[in-house]
Structures are given as structure tokens and as C-alpha cells.
Protein: MerR family transcriptional regulator
Organism: Aquimarina litoralis
Amino acid sequence: MFNYLNKKVNNIKQNFSIKDLENLCGVKAHTIRIWEKRYNLLSPNRTETNIRTYSLKSLQKLLNVTYLVNSGYKISRVSKLNNEEIDEYVRRIVSDTSTKNQAINSLKIAMLNYDLQLFLGTYEQLAEKRTFRQIFTDVFIPLLTEIGLLWQTNTISPSHEHFITNLIKQKLLINIEKLQYSKASQTDKAFILFLPENEIHELGLLYINYEILLKGYKAIYLGPSIPLDSLPNMLTFHENTTFLSYFTVRPEKDKIEDYVQKFNEVVCTKRESEFWMLGKQTMHISKTSAPNHRYFSSITDLIKEL
């Protein structure tokens, strides 16, 4: 999985702190220091103030070493291997059930270096054995969860996050388009997918759109930042319409109750429609606002209802 890493890349971020390594590899800084001292596993550089810094090559090695240790190899054994032997051991033990962990590590490196070819190569290897649904749920969702934590701890910059999420979005759009050529097999209802005004985090909603089409339903995807007053004319799309939205940061917690109430006042004046909602902002709703409102704690829970 890391064969692309041996190629020359444009290293935007070349040095990492021990805290960065802890966040990226899932190994405590204390453990990293022990591995350095006891096994000479890594050779960090030192700043003038004696702070450890690590190269991309050190990060790659630690990712592979962590993978081997998590696969049952003892660190005392792994530490005696050279870099080429470590790479070979990793390639040897990668199986269909464990590829996802290696792929996530590979995609992290692609993100850190803005490396399009590494992303595409990793994706192609996954696609040889997995459906897009499996790739998204087994690899992309855990990766995005980690990216959120890395961003919060300042391990990565917003540009890193935007780079990788836009590539994932491209893959989503390609696979959505493939499904759109098929005629809907479920005709009892249709879905209108949208995000509220000033909400731009659409990956989750895009994936739900993919699942809705995969189940054979009709769907109209309106995308981010849609005013409520533009929705009533969508009722002509189908006689049984379900609206669906994903609240990540908008509406704000002190405005979301009013927002879901306003949905009924603005959209459901002529005909009541179901309104399905998910996202972390829904935790600020009392959940008793209207019988046509449905709330889901996760994408998985929503998919079960399709």
C-alpha cells in the first residue's frame, strides 16, 4: 500500500512534533520515547531548544511499525528490521480484512503531502476488492473522523482537510452519477436533500444521497445553504415527499428549535411532508416539536429506515 511513498513527493509539511506522531499513529508520546531510547527506532532531529522533530520518513516508518505491532509482532523484533524489511513484512501480512487500516495510513500521508497520485493509487487498490459502499464506510468514514480530531489538535491545517475531503467528494459524485442513470424502482416516495443556510458540510448528505439512490428511490439533491422559502415548490416533485437535512454547525443551538418549527410553517402549508434530520446540532432539539419530524443519531440508523 505504501509503494507510492518511495516516489519523490512535494513535501509541504516536512517536520512533525512528537505530539503530531502521537495523533497520527495512535501511539503515546511516552511509548515513542521508550522505543527511541530502548530500540533506537527513530532518530529525531533537535531544535536549538532541544525539542524533538521528526521527518516524513520517520512518520512513515512509525506508521508501519505501529501496524506490525497491532498485528501481533513484538516491538523488540520489529526494531531489528531495516526499513525495507519492515515494508516487506507489512506487505506480507496485509489481507482483505486488514487493508483498511493500511489504507487509512496511506491516505493520511496523501493528505499531509497533498499527494493526488497516492490518494488515487490507494483508492484503486481498495476498489479492486471492495464496493464503493464498503470503501466509504470502512475507510473514508474512519478517516474523516480521525481528520476531525487531527484538525482540532492543530496537527493538520484546514488546507489538509479541504484537500482530502474534496477528493472524497469527487469519488462520491462519480458513484452517485452512475446510479442516476438507473430508473427508480421504489416509487412510493421521493427525497429532497438540502442543507440549511450557511451550512456547507455536505459529505454526509452526499453519501446519504448515494444510499437513497442505491435503494432505488427518486431523489433531488439541492446541496448546501438552501433557504426554507425555496422548498415549497419542491412538493410538486412527488406526491409523497420526504425532506432530509444534515445539521453539522447550522442552525446554531439557540436557533435550531425555531428552524424546525419554521419548516412546518413555510414548507407544509399545503401538504404535510416528513422532515428527516441528523447531525450533531440535532442534540439541541427537544424532539417533540412535530409528529412529521424524525431524528437520526447516525447515517447508519437513517439507512436502516430506507
